[in-house]
Specification:
44% of the residues lie in helices and 16% in strands. By secondary structure, the chain is α/β, with parallel strands linked by helices.
Length: 268
């Protein structure tokens, strides 16, 4: 794998101890970046910390829905390395409602996914976890990214493109709002040399999805996979490769775009 020509760059990945975030941290560590990973999962952070050199990896417990926690997170990164070049807003998630339901071989919404069944608490929780965290982390990082002429990559979802078949209405709505925030940031920060892009992952075999997938019947699995032209789910590493590309100088003239990484399930 080709090494990054600027190994001193510092990357902060929120929600980076599991799934796509962890795979992105591992990929970019391999590329020679210094990586700060934040997460609320202390056990996962500890496992990740023990896997890499402390000179290249900084693990931070942080609640990215809290302004004060985010300020402390940024301060920890600056205290360790004195700079912040790249922010990957990966932290987020959905509610406990089914992430998809199949009826007669097609995707459909369950009752628990309907707008009328989403209470205010669940709605606010989804927006806080996905959208508020992205906004607050970007806002706190902007002065440092301008100084370094860095970049932001926001992790949205395929659900943002065509509704709430993945999780609940709060998930699809907040992930769609991230795309609007991405475009606004790209216009606002472009004159300062800061890029902002997004990825919209499709079905990805994270540990959480693997557990759900294991409980599906073979017939249901075949019906689901038949709707994906490539015939399979993505790996976390494949999503990480796209994020790493957007963070790199190979994407130096890309800003305000959304890369759909879904195996052909959705076309723009």
């Amino acid at each position: 794998m080709e090494k990054n020509m600027e190994p001193a760059k510092v990357v902060l990945i929120t929600g980076g101890a599991n799934g796509i975030g962890k795979a992105t941290a591992e990929r970019m560590l391999t590329d020679g970046y210094r990586i700060a990973v934040s997460d609320i999962d202390e056990e996962a952070l500890s496992q990740l910390k023990n896997s890499f050199s402390k000179d290249m990896l900084l693990c931070i417990k942080a609640d990215v829905t809290s302004s004060s926690s985010i300020v402390q997170m940024i301060d920890n990164v600056l205290g360790a390395w004195g700079q912040l070049d790249i922010l990957v807003n990966n932290a987020g998630g959905g509610s406990s409602v089914p992430w998809f339901v199949m009826r007669q071989g097609k995707f459909d919404s369950s009752t628990s996914n309907q707008v009328e069944d989403c209470n205010l608490e669940r709605w606010e929780q989804g927006l806080n976890l996905n959208l508020k965290s992205c906004f607050l982390c970007s806002k706190a990082a902007i002065p440092h990214l301008i100084r370094q002429k860095g970049c932001i990559v926001n992790v949205s979802s395929m659900a943002a493109r065509f509704g709430a078949i993945l999780g609940g209405v709060e998930y699809a709505s907040s992930k769609a709002a991230i795309l609007g925030l991405t475009r606004r940031l790209s216009r606002e920060l472009g004159p300062f040399g800061v890029r902002c892009n997004a990825v919209a992952p499709g079905f990805t075999l994270s540990p959480r999805l693997e557990r759900v997938w294991a409980g599906r019947s073979q017939l249901e699995k075949e019906k689901i996979l038949s709707q994906i032209p490539l015939g399979r789910f993505a790996t976390c590493q494949e999503q990480a490769n796209v994020i790493a590309f957007l963070c790199s100088q190979r994407a130096s003239y890309l800003t305000g775009i959304v890369l759909d990484v879904n195996g052909g399930f959705y076309f723009t």
